[in-house]
Amino acid sequence: MEHLDEGARPERVDALVALVEASFRDAADSDEARIVSDLARSIIATTPASDLKVCSALSDGARRAVILFTRMHPAESGRSVFLLSPVAVATDAQGQGVGSGLIAFGLERLRQDGADTVVTYGDPSFYGRLGFAALDPDAVPPPHPLSQPVGWIGQALDGGAVRPMSGPLKTVPAFDRPDIW
Ligand SMILES: CC(C)(COP(=O)(O)OP(=O)(O)OC[C@H]1O[C@@H](n2cnc3c(N)ncnc32)[C@H](O)[C@@H]1OP(=O)(O)O)[C@@H](O)C(=O)NCCC(=O)NCCS
């Protein structure tokens, strides 16, 4: 599996969005698939290049997995914090380490770019294997009230503890919707 840091300019947005839609349709249902794939399209369409990173896993040149990272804006200056969401692996490529490998690749690229922290909102049992741990919402306040507080997780990219933040993290516009938190 080849890993590609596409920056903010994925070559084929429609193929990327279709991969997200199919992956979530098979894993969840068509409503969730539509919500997440619409979100992916909106992230790519509306996020400034400096605030977006797209990484893909390719096999024989075909995209088999994709992950989006968007910048979060803490109250403090001098921090570089990203949100990992969404990540999707083609259904027939799941359970073979593709998702874990792509997440590890993306985290390393963000670290090289100077990011200090990555947060996400997902299943702690999956992300826990990849260095993510529960975030204290008082120390790292989420952008909106969470419907599933257990899913608020993150990690510092220097291997230490996540440094606290003094106010809610602000998202890029595509994520600034209370209904998806
Ligand atoms: C979740 C997902 C990204 C994981 O990628 P993957 O390539 O299938 O996972 P890997 O092969 O790297 O890791 C597999 C391990 O993670 C576990 N795992 C996979 N999906 C999981 C989930 N949603 N929750 C908990 N554990 C999960 C598997 O049970 C497996 O464990 P095992 O090694 O003990 O058998 C992928 O399955 C996927 O795209 N699913 C549909 C979309 C989705 O749910 N995206 C994540 C939310 S944003």
TrEMBL record:
Domain of life assignment: Bacteria
Pfam short name (any one): Acetyltransf_1
Residues of the N-acetyltransferase domain: 1-151
UniProt keyword list: Transferase
GO molecular function, a single term: acyltransferase activity, transferring groups other than amino-acyl groups
Keyword Lipid metabolism assigned: no
Keyword field contains Transferase: yes
Entry protein name: Acetyltransferase (GNAT) family protein
Species for this entry: Palleronia pelagia
